[in-house]
Amino acid sequence: MDKIRFERVTKKFLVRDEHKKGAQREFTAIQNIEFTVREGEFITLVGPSGCGKSTLLDLLTGLTKPTKGRILIDGREITGPGLDRGIVFQQYALFPWKTARGNIEFGLEAKGIPKSERKEKAEYYLDLVGLKNFADRYPHELSGGMKQRVAIARSLAFNPDVLLMDEPFAALDAQTRETLQTELLRIWKKTGKTIIFITHGIDEAVYLGERVVVLTANPGTVKKIVDIPLKDRLEDADVKSNPAFISARREVWNLLHEPEFQGAHI
Amino acid sequence: MVTINKPATKLNKPSKPQKSSSPSLSAFVKAFKNSIVLILFVLLWELAPQLGIVERTFLPPFSEVIRAWWDLLVSGELWRHFQASILRSLFGFLLALAVAIPLGLIIGWYPLARDLLTPILELFRNTAALALLPVFILILGIGEVSKISIVLFACTWPVLLNTISAVKNVDPLLIKSARSMNISSFKLFYKVILPASVPTIFTGIRMAGTGAILVLIAAEMIGAKAGLGYFITYSQYNFLIAEMYAGIITISLLGLLINYGLSSAERYFSRWKQ
Ligand SMILES: Nc1ncnc2c1ncn2[C@@H]1O[C@H](COP(=O)(O)OP(=O)(O)OP(=O)(O)O)[C@@H](O)[C@H]1O
Ligand SMILES: [Mg+2]
């Protein structure tokens, strides 16, 4: 079943014109994006820097609107932000004056969950991300990996259908990133959320995604959607040496390194 | 297991008294470091007039000043002036907070208001409040109103400008994150903008607290019938030099007290910062 549907989505920005002083011109960040995400699917988005991945995510949050086209969730057009979508940013975006627990309760409060239930729910999600003993720490007292766990718990706690993640692990060291990747898979299995995950890492995209959407730059369009035929990534300890993984990885790599990308930074 | 544990506990025990003795020593060293210069200062103040290095009519020995201070305290005279000063400054200060914080939050939130008003606010902030004292007296007379008004004036600008810049500098990602949870503008303001701004606002409040005393004392020196500023000039005119110094010491203590109070409050409200 289709959960999210992009229908010829275009987003243009007004930017300063380099040639005419004081003038503005239109800049097309993404153009005619069209694809669907299935219910409960884990989909990853890769593409060169500046190809419009974050722009796409902003459109999904409903904080900005497409210039043309529309995005449907469960068949209804997105008109604004909503608690059916949870967002996780690369820079965590935790409220520094709230403890880990307070941050998680923030979203619950936004949803209108009564105070008595908030504590219990926060407890549950802290436990889910393995931070039961850090509930009363302030963000500055947590490591980067812990902060991102809190951010994930915060987004999960108000129980959205869709989890939107913009390079959530990019600021973490390799080992923490790997741990969080497997944990995210575990959480996905357990909760059955639809996840849209943006990344720069080809390995990460292939390891996490059931499908990988490869985008082109200037303007951002869908180049290809690659199916990743891996099952039970969590059971297979050495999934990255699996031939299916290797060939999928090569395909994504090739797509990102074809001539039109030359000169672009990935 | 048991055999391994035993030596460990044996090793732990003797180390305990060592650990507890060193903090008390270092605390002593710290207290010494903090107070030594202060003690020397008092000693110098005591001895210089005693030994005739300075004229004791102009600078009586410390002990004499303290005696005068004590007498004033017991007679209730000092309390009367202290009370007059603290009530005026507190009144003006709190009034300034009540005006400047809400106003700053609003101005900070609207970029147009911010851009239009910041230059003139900066101008006011940098106009020494005392330079305007004649104007205040001219318009409001020499009663309580003019004194409270000048404190209000002096306290308003640092709080207002800090509040505006606090709101302006709230991390946009936090706003985005909160907005994505579909919370109302009012809640966004109350739950995100306000708490994020508190530390910067408090820096302004602390600046205002210091300013409040400064301008009030000066205002009292020019025209008042009570208050520490009045008391100091009165003592000077009547050649009550020890009393004059007693008044000055009281002002120092008052300043320290206010600064300590506001710093602790600031620390409390910023405890979530590194
Ligand atoms: N508010 C804006 N105004 C003008 N241009 C913008 C705005 N936001 C994004 N852009 C432009 O749109 C393009 C896409 O930006 P976006 O942030 O979506 O890229 P991205 O794929 O997320 O890049 P990265 O991988 O580096 O995060 C960029 O060229 C950027 O300069
Ligand atoms: Mg981005």
From TrEMBL, chain B:
Alphabetic keyword roster: Cell membrane, Membrane, Transmembrane, Transmembrane helix, Transport
Domain ABC transmembrane type-1: 82-262
Segments of this protein annotated with the region Disordered: 1-23
Keyword Repressor in record: no
Localization in the cell: Cell membrane
Record field: compositional bias (Low complexity): 14-23
Segment forming the signal sequence: none
Predominant localisation class: membrane
Highest taxon in the source lineage: Bacteria
Cellular component annotations (GO), alphabetically ordered: plasma membrane
TM region positions: 90-111, 211-232, 244-262
One record GO biological process: transmembrane transport
Keyword GTP-binding: no
Membrane topology according to the record: Multi-pass membrane protein
Family named by the database record: Belongs to the binding-protein-dependent transport system permease family.
Protein name per the record: ABC transporter permease
Native source species: Ureibacillus endophyticus
